[in-house]
């Protein structure tokens, strides 16, 4: 199954909401008018496209006035174009030039950091790389145990400290061990922190700093994990985290099953941060590198059943 | 980019500025602003539309009140409608008449179920004198059972788990265990599940069938977006939800999801999670949540916190001194220490109406309070009582003693002067400069400092009076301290803001009408509290 088909399957709900919704709008040979664009806006809004929904529909309406939009196919084609414009180019997977390549993973509480790390570890291992996990979440009860269980399932090495230890020291140890053992990739799991907590944001900045002390140039990547079910607040989160850290990409978790793939557009618009991966399910394999075209197609292209 | 709801509301508000009354023609633009604001707060599209429709009919249907400006009336209607939608106030957990009360916790992954289980257990034990048993039935997420066990150990509460069994079986055995061990509340921590995951939804329904929980609570992340409606609906269809717990409200999410969820499930929101510590779970108050969504602050919450941390006498003494113009550095230090007891500065300031949205951009560093305290304690008691003694030489000594620059001392004294000046003005506007000290004291006793509040409470000298006094003390200290924070950034509350925020005395002319709406709300809330 290709990437497009997999995404189509996993983003079923978003697709149902948007693509099938569009089919529904045109049912019964309805003419294109402002009311139709209003309904389309609502449809996009409820998929969490945020302000993008209004913009896209306004552009569609203008194009319609210019006589460029005559039917459902035109709407879809133009919608696809407009949405693609807003996603920017694909960033692809990290190049792993450095050895070890250190990836610091951050995010608010419950966004899906630990699970995403397990999936990333699995993915990198399948690419033939050796992976070491650093359990820098020393705050939440049993967070290190959770990562340890993933590590043993993945057969990855793990470095952990005692509960309540300084996360920066655990990060240092993890990078240190990876460097001496010649590991390819270090994935550092950190405690969830609300972006409004000043002291916790200072803590994570320190982690970043301390890593650089052990290995100049590290962390090579800082990925922010966003909960796909979060609303407009995701933008605030991304803002605060980018202010505190050199964030290089996003991992959007829990995109399966919800109708809210649309949040990506608002985030792109506000921050221009590349989305690196999408989490689309609970199993270890369900992590997809983000490709804008496949993503937009998966949610906009008509499904066979609906087209009939 | 993120234009706050408060901003939008004041736009809508100023829109009515030179209108005599609200008409069907001029209301739509204002409603449009409100709708956009609600959408930005993650209120569901449909719910937002219904909401504005209802505000419209409420405003247009209401009789025009004499002396109430259209703008006020509009904001008031929005607030009232929000409170109605999110009510009822004071919804509580129902306990079983006999045998243990079984509480089922369900929700999406990462909503905060396990942490909330721990918080709820603590709250039930401390406020309701219950003996809870925690049941670890999340067999899906690695180490979820360990997490609950650690929480249980921290709380010295028993945690039940039967390894290797399916979740419904674990829960059923947990309930049996509670009966045997004499626990009177059983909290079932279940795995996070997506509402579209048929298999997992069937599992949670099975748990409900086997254990017949008395309370079935949906745990929802306050940052949830538009999908909140769909997931809440799906859970509600499979379970008989009895209530909702909203988590992670300590962030800056406006929590519009609360409104949507209340609307689709018509189940009350019982508790809100407000921090990472186990005691950070509070009962839900629709008034406050409405204030938060509208960016109006949480005065009631502030007063409650204050009530639990500061004695009435302390507050009263401090307020009297301020009004009587006897305020010294010694008193300022006492106030500083009172404020420190209330918790992190940002949280405290955030509860003040109108400051909430400013605090978001305000860099509040609690260490500054500590540094300030160091300045105070480096003075001699005599200096604190007679600040005019502080010449350059003394200032240098104080700076050295507190390990800071002379500038810091100067800043502090400037803040102090500002406060004194403000109090003078307050006096002029408020209690009348001509009254003698005794008359003022008398006046103070007879009047609750918030003016209106005393009406329903036990005479002027009641607790509310003392608290109101504290409110005013806080306000002025806020500005005193405010001056020292961040060096005059634009987002700081202005003197004017803080003054109109204060409860003390009749309101100065020109306090914003939004505040007046606010005070009516407070009056009602406190009257209610007074009755209870």
In short:
The complex is a heterodimer of chains A (308) and B (532). Chain A is α/β, with parallel strands linked by helices. In chain A, 51% of the residues lie in helices and 14% in strands.
| Most strands sheet of chain B | 8 strands, mixed
Number of domains of chain A: 2
Query: How many β-strand runs of chain B?
Result: 8
| SSE class of chain A | alpha/beta
Largest sheet of chain A: 8 strands, mixed
Overall shape of chain A: elongated
Determine the strand fraction of chain A and express it as a percent band. Answer: 5-15%
CATH topology of the largest domain in chain B: 434 Repressor (Amino-terminal Domain)
Chain-wise SSE layout:
The complex is a heterodimer of chains A (308) and B (532).
Chain A: H1 3-10, H2 12-26, H3 34-45, H4 51-65, H5 72-85, E1 101-106, H6 113-126, E2 131-136, H7 143-154, E3 157-160, H8 167-181, E4 185-190, H9 198-214, E5 221-227, H10 233-244, E6 249-253, H11 263-271, E7 275-279, E8 287-289, H12 292-300, H13 304-307
Parallel strand pairs in A: 1-4, 1-5, 2-3, 2-4, 5-6, 6-7
Antiparallel strand pairs in A: 7-8
Helix pairs in contact in A: 1-12, 2-3, 3-4, 4-5, 5-12, 6-7, 8-9, 10-11
Chain B: H1 5-15, H2 24-40, H3 45-61, H4 70-86, E1 101-107, H5 113-128, E2 132-137, H6 144-155, E3 159-160, H7 167-181, E4 185-190, H8 198-211, E5 215-221, H9 228-238, E6 243-247, H10 256-265, E7 269-273, E8 281-283, H11 286-294, H12 299-309, H13 312-324, H14 329-342, H15 345-351, H16 356-361, H17 367-377, H18 381-385, H19 392-402, H20 406-429, H21 437-446, H22 463-482, H23 495-501, H24 513-531
């Amino acid at each position: 199954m290709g990437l497009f088909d997999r995404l189509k399957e996993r983003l079923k709900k978003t697709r149902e909401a948007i693509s099938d919704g569009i089919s529904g709008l045109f049912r019964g040979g309805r003419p294109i008018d402002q009311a139709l664009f209003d309904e389309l806006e609502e449809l996009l809004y409820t998929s969490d496209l945020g302000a993008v929904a209004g913009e896209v529909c306004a552009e569609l309406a203008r194009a319609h006035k210019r006589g460029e939009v005559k039917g459902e196919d035109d709407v879809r084609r133009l919608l696809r174009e407009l949405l693609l414009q807003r996603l920017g180019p694909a960033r692809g997977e990290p190049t792993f030039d450095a050895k070890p390549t250190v990836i610091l993973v951050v995010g608010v509480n419950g966004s899906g950091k630990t699970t995403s790390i397990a999936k990333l570890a699995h993915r990198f291992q399948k690419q033939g790389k050796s992976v070491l996990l650093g359990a820098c979440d020393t705050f939440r009860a049993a967070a290190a145990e959770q990562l340890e269980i993933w590590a043993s399932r993945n057969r990855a090495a793990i470095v952990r400290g005692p509960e309540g230890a300084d996360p920066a020291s655990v990060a240092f140890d993890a990078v240190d061990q990876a460097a001496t053992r010649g590991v390819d990739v270090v994935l550092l799991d950190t405690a969830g922190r609300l972006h409004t907590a000043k002291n916790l944001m200072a803590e994570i900045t320190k982690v970043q700093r301390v890593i650089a002390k052990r290995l100049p140039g590290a962390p090579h990547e800082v990925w922010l994990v966003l909960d796909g079910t979060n609303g407009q607040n995701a933008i605030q989160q991304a803002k605060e985290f980018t202010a505190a850290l050199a964030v290089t990409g996003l991992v959007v978790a829990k995109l399966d099953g919800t109708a809210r793939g649309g949040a990506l557009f608002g985030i792109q618009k506000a921050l221009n941060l590349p989305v690196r991966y999408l989490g689309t399910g609970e199993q270890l394999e369900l992590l997809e590198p983000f490709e804008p075209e496949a993503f937009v197609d998966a949610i906009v292209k008509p499904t066979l059943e609906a087209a009939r | 980019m993120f234009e706050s709801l408060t901003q939008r509301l004041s736009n809508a508000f100023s829109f009515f500025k030179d209108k005599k009354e609200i008409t069907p023609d001029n209301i739509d633009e204002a409603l449009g602003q409100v709708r956009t604001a609600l959408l930005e707060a993650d209120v569901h599209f449909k719910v937002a539309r219904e909401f504005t429709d209802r505000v419209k009919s409420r405003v247009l249907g209401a009789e025009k009140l004499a002396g109430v400006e259209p703008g006020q009336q509009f904001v008031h209607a929005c607030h009232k409608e929000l409170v109605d939608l999110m009510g009822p106030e004071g919804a509580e957990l129902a306990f079983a008449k006999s045998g243990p009360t079984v509480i089922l916790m369900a929700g999406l992954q990462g909503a905060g179920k396990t942490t909330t289980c721990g918080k709820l257990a603590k709250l039930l034990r401390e406020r309701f004198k219950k003996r809870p048993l925690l049941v670890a039935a999340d067999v899906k997420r690695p180490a979820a059972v360990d997490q609950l066990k650690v929480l249980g150990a921290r709380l010295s509460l028993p945690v039940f788990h039967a390894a290797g069994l399916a979740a419904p079986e674990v829960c059923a055995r947990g309930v049996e265990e509670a009966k045997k061990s004499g626990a009177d509340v059983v909290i079932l921590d279940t795995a996070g599940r997506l509402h579209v995951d048929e298999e997992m939804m069937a599992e949670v329904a099975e748990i409900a069938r086997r254990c017949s929980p008395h309370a079935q609570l949906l745990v929802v992340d306050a940052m949830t977006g538009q999908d909140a409606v769909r997931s809440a609906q799906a859970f509600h269809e499979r379970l008989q939800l009895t209530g909702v717990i909203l988590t992670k409200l300590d962030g800056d999410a406006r929590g519009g999801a609360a409104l949507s969820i209340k609307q689709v499930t018509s189940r009350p929101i019982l508790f809100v999670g407000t921090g990472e510590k186990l005691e950070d779970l509070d009962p839900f108050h629709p008034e406050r949540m409405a204030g938060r969504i509208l960016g109006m602050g949480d005065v009631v919450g502030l007063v409650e916190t204050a009530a639990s941390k500061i004695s009435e006498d302390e507050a009263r003494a401090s307020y009297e001194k301020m009004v009587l113009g006897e305020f010294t550095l010694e008193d300022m230090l006492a106030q500083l220490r009172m404020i420190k007891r209330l918790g992190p500065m940002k949280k405290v300031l955030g509860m003040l109406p109108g400051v909430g949205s400013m605090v978001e951009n305000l860099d509040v560093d609690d260490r500054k309070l500590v540094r300030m305290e160091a300045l105070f304690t480096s003075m001699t008691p005599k200096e604190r009582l007679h600040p005019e003694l502080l010449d350059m030489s003394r200032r240098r000594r104080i700076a050295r003693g507190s390990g800071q620059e002379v500038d810091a001392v100067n800043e502090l004294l400037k803040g102090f002067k500002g406060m004194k000046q403000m109090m003078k003005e307050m006096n002029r506007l408020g209690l009348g400069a001509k009254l003698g000290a005794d008359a003022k004291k008398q006046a103070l006793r007879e009047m609750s400092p918030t003016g209106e509040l005393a009406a329903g409470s036990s005479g002027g000298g009641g607790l509310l009076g003392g608290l109101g006094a504290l409110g005013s003390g806080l306000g002025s200290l806020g500005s005193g301290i405010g001056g020292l924070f961040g060096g005059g950034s634009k987002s700081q509350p202005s003197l004017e803001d803080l003054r109109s925020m204060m409860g003390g005395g009749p309101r100065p002319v020109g306090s914003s009408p939004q505040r007046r709406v606010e005070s009516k709300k407070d009056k009602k809330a406190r009257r209610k509290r007074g009755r209870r």
